[in-house]
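hey can u check if this looks right to u? its 322 residues, i copy pasted from the old doc so theres a chance i mangled smth
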Amino acid sequence: MSNRKFFIDTDTASDDAVALLMALETKDVDVLGVSIVSGNMPIVQGSINARYTIELCKKNIPVYIGADSPLVKKREHADWFHGPDGMGNMNYPLPKLEASKENFINVLKSHIQEFPYEVTLVTLGPLTNIANFISKESESFLKLKNIVIMGGAATTVGNVTPAAEYNIWCDPEAAEIVFNSGHKNISMVGWELCRGGANLTEEEMEYIYSFQTEKGDFSINCNKHALESSQNWLGDPGLGLPDPVAMAVALNPSVVIKQSKHNVKIVLDGPSRGMTIVDKLNVGENEPHIDEYWSHTNKNINVIWEIDNQAWKDTLYNTLKD
């Protein structure tokens, strides 16, 4: 059986780097390419962080530069959460691997043409790049096998605002385009799934250090700033890793305990900008259809509601041990 094929879109900061590492270190997965979007980091720093991670894994995967700003909104970054370099101020050396000068839209289209209905797209940042791809190659987009999105908050609080998760908040217009693309297999892995029991505890982080591998040490060290932010700002007990949780879902579907399809709408402006409104009761599909926004809707997104916390952590551990 041939390897699974992944393409990863990322705004590479510390948790993105761990998610990227997980895919690179999964033996039956071929990472076809990595595209960089503005989000956690400016695209130049995001590219550096992705290329450093690829080199750490002793791979030679092309990295493509994508959108350097959202479709409509002002550009914002998350250095306050991940540190100025996005990697916990670890001052890693610059990578030798250079970024590709090719247009990622052309590259992704080529991969889809070569492997129709075989490529899994995993998005770890704002959805600007993917919206741009859809605007130019909407038919090709529908020939992706599936899309796993780290983004949103399903009927719960946000992180960057009370209503919204950071990736969707950064570029809600892009998210709206992606969520309404018509693709039948889009999964939303909300940030809430990395909280509570899904956090890495101090004991679990020490367990990773006990592997005595460069990959394991890197995964915890680069997230030290994020750990402080998780505990001091978000009030979590340990280290929340939203992007690695999403990658675990993409790599190992058995991580998912509960999922279901619903209509999900994106709030574009106002105090709820970036909110992902999930029609959990499917009221928009049923009579009496009295609300203009919630009448005759369709289930556009597969919402991941619950994961097996130990299964996600085991998926992570297996990529860090050797």
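The CA atoms of residues 26 and 318 lie 8 Å apart.
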